[in-house]
Structures are given as C-alpha cells and as structure tokens.
Amino acid sequence: MRKLKFLNINVIFVAMILVILFSSCLSFGKNCDGADYFDELRVDLVSLFKTTNSQIYLFSLGAFSFALDGPINESIPRSDFLEVLNDIDIFDFALISVVVSGLIFPFDSYTAWTVIESFAMSALITGTIKFLVGRARPFVNGNPFLFKFFSMEDTYQSFPSGHSALSWAIFTPVAERFGKLWYVVPTIFSLQRLWSKNHWFSDVYYGLLLGYTTGHSLYYSRSE
Q1: For the chain, how big is the Rg over CA atoms in Å?
Q2: Rounded alpha-carbon distances, angstroms, from residue 4 to 8, 9, 14, 29
Q3: How many domains does the chain have?
C-alpha cells in the first residue's frame, strides 16, 4: 500500500511538471528553453513583490488576529460538516489545480497557466512558513501560542492554513476571469478550517491573504 501511495505521489508530481511546461509554452507561445519564458516569470515575481508591498497594511493588520484566536476558537462550535475537506492534502490540491487549469485552458490559456503557477508558488511559500514557524493546531492543547520551530509534524504546522492559501491561490485567477461567484469555493475551504478546529483564525486569515495576493498579482501581471 505504501509503495502504491508513493507511486501515486510521483505520478502527480510528474503530471504537474508536464502540465506546467506544456501550458506555459502554449499560453505564452514561446519556446520552453527560450529567455522569454524566464522574462515572464521574472515579471510575475516582481508583480507579486509589488502587490505584497501594496497590501502590507493587511499583513500588518493581521497581527491583531492572533488576539482573536482563543475567543473565536471557543465561540465556534465544532462541526463535522464537509469533513471530507480534511482529507485533502497538498497532492490533492496539485491535482485540483491541474484539473481546473485543464478545464479553462480552451477558453483562456493565460488564466490556465496562472492557476498552476499560483498554486505552485503558494505551496512553496506556505510550506516553508509552516516548517519555520511550527505552530500547534488548536486540538493539541488549546494554546494559540505553542510553537515547535522547524517541525515536520503535521500537528505543528498550523500557520498559515494550507487549505486556505492553496484554495485561494487556485480559484482567485478563476474568479477574476470568470466571475466573482467562484470566490465561494475558497471561502468554504477557509470557513471549514475554523469549524473543524484544524486551524486558528490567524492561520486562516494569513492563508487567505497569501493565496489571494499570489493569485491576484500573477493574474494581473500580464497588464504590466
């Protein structure tokens, strides 16, 4: 069973790489080994940096969210509603990004590529922060200020919320292109992390902000 799971993980990674290369070539109309692709990537990174700076007040305002972690966690009753979302991991989100990208590719190749790029960038940033911070999840002992830095344990990788960050990263470009109604999807993911008691409010806030900022800046970088 472990070998089969390991094989599935590798298949997903290979599929992601192939889709990224394929969609990037088609969406930009460039050669994969050309300098234009790296120029486009550089523009995207610059756009992300500028957008993050322009929204620094939102990231700063989030500092107050830590004071709300305890009260919000206690006031929201635990619910198993949409418990299936708890089983979605990084590899499932990778598959979701590939499927979403594939579905919208015939209508807008640029947005299709942006979905993949936004997911990959958010996953890298979120995973790095989770490892460095090592914050305990609410169900560990109910203490929002319990940390185990540089932890690989899932119970100590609460900050920021990966479900929030990745769902917003994937569906923000979709919502900006095909209608704001699509923001309902990442909103449900974010709320579920609270009522399932898997995350603190500040985890969800920063995950949402990280994913939205990434998806939004990468989508609009084409106008620069």
Answers
A1: 18
A2: 6, 9, 15, 37
A3: 1
For the stretch 58-71, pLDDT in tens is 777 788 999 999 99
Closest CA to 207 of 143, 133, 153: 133
Residue ranges making up the domain that contains 141: 2-223
- Binning the chain into helix, strand and coil, the percentages to the nearest 5 are 80, 0, 20
Cβ neighbours of 11 (radius 10 Å):
12
SS3 sequence of 9-71:
HHHHHHHHHHHHHHHHHHHHCCCCCCHHHHHHHHHHHHHHHHHHHHCHHHHHHHHHHHHHHHH
State the Cα–Cα distance between residues 18 and 127, nearest whole angstrom.
22
pTM of the model as a whole: 0.81
What burial letters (b/e) apply to 14-45, b meaning 16+ CB within 10 Å? eebeebbeebbbebbebeeeeeebeebeeebe
